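can u do me a favor
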């Protein structure tokens, strides 16, 4: 096995040099294919078993970009800890790269229950792991907690070796999972005895190795993680499921942006010349709201009912997210949405537990902001396209019967681009907030 440097934004990749084409597998949770006793990554026909110790070494030492070359389907196990890998990293040395390192800080707590395992993630300024481990019979119950820094990683966790219970060995051997296993690279527990070729490296070595595994498995989110991880009886399966939940939370703002982005620009189809005709009274279309009338509607101190709102916004049921406007004051506006059980999305979101989708709360903010943009006469008749949402936070569910107050403050308006801070609240409690950017276009 060889560790190679990699350019910025590469991440960690495993390269099978023994296979044709030297296929690579990115260290991402979507490539996890097996979590029995260890974590396996797969892509196409290529597989890498037991990646967690190497990933923990990279995460603990602060390595963001590296290529791991292997001529087999599993790294050398060494002594069952991450000590040898850390020594390789220290011998090679680290180089700071110009690309910005962006740790991810949770926007909300995450909870996972999987069998006997309970895992919790809480937002934090610095990474920390708190863990309790035991076996099914309650033997060797251990607890440890530490902040994760390169220093604490090397001192408190990196040397902890893998371990197993004697009664598990027969099953593992029959399934070909520990072909290279010995007391040189694992600690074996038999009844109340600990079998090892050297004394335990820590009095609570077992729980510390569990924490080493957690660090390696959670690095599969692809970014350093600022969170306090609380784990009770963790496992590779639970670690990887937790990593998937983190990735899902990371993608929420991105998905919201994609949902509300303008459609791709396409060349307009030439329209045939219209035939002249005489317009009858029955065919006459209602006139659009003129600039002067619009300014009168969207003025300081004005309130708007739903009919007036529909004169300004092109949205209609079921996608009109503003029932009325109760305040217009300078760069601030407040809209109201009465959330009824008849809303179309409650049928499937979720049956028996109806919740207003967070992205529709973002849409409500954008629609209210769009009303405020219409204060300028030159914007009359334009559409507001949602371009992006940043600093998005959903704080608690919105349910049928809630009255949603949508407060928006315009922070920037230049040309066709507008930026605003939005917040939705129910009974005075904030339920969601975001910074939104949108663009005005002609209808």
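np, heres the sequence
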């Amino acid at each position: 096995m060889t560790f190679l440097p990699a350019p910025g934004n590469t991440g960690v990749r495993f390269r099978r040099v023994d296979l044709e084409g030297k296929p690579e597998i990115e260290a991402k949770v979507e490539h996890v294919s097996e979590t029995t006793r260890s974590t396996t990554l797969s892509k196409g026909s290529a597989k890498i078993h037991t990646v967690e110790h190497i990933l923990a070494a990279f995460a603990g030492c602060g390595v963001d970009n590296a290529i791991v070359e292997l001529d087999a389907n599993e790294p050398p196990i060494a002594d069952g800890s991450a000590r040898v890998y850390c020594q390789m990293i220290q011998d090679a040395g680290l180089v700071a790269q110009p690309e910005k390192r962006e740790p991810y800080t949770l926007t909300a707590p995450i909870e996972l229950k999987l069998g006997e395992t309970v895992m919790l993630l809480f937002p934090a300024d610095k990474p920390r792991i708190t863990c309790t481990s035991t076996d099914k019979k309650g033997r060797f119950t251990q607890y440890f907690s530490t902040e994760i820094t390169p220093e604490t990683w090397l001192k408190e966790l990196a040397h902890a070796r893998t371990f197993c219970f004697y009664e598990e060995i027969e099953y593992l051997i029959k399934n070909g999972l520990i072909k290279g296993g010995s007391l040189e690279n694992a600690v074996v527990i038999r009844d109340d005895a600990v079998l090892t070729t050297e004394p335990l490296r820590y009095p609570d070595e077992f729980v510390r190795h569990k924490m080493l595994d957690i660090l390696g498995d959670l690095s599969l989110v692809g970014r350093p993680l600022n969170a306090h991880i609380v784990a009770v009886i963790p496992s590779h399966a639970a670690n990887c499921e937790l990593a998937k939940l983190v990735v899902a939370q990371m993608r929420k703002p991105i998905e919201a942006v994609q949902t509300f982005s303008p459609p791709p620009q396409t060349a307009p189809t030439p329209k045939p010349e219209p035939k002249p005709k005489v317009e009858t009274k029955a065919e006459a279309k209602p006139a659009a709201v003129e600039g002067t009338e619009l300014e009168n509607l969207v003025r300081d101190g004005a309130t708007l009912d739903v009919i007036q709102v529909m004169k300004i916004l092109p949205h209609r049921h079921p996608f009109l997210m503003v029932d009325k406007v109760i305040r217009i004051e300078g760069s601030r506006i407040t809209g109201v949405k009465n959330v009824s059980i008849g809303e179309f999305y409650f049928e499937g979101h979720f049956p028996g537990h109806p919740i207003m989708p967070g992205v529709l709360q973002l849409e409500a903010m954008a629609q209210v902001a769009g009303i405020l943009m219409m204060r300028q006469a030159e914007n009359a008749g334009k559409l507001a396209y949602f371009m992006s949402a940043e600093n998005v936070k959903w704080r608690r569910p919105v349910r049928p019967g809630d009255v949603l107050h949508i407060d928006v403050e315009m922070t920037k308006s230049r040309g066709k681009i507008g930026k605003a801070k939005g917040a939705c609240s129910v009974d005075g409690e904030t339920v969601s907030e975001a910074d939104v950017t949108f663009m005005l276009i002609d209808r």
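Residues 287-442 form a domain with the Thiol Ester Dehydrase; Chain A fold (CATH 3.10.129.10). hope that helps!!
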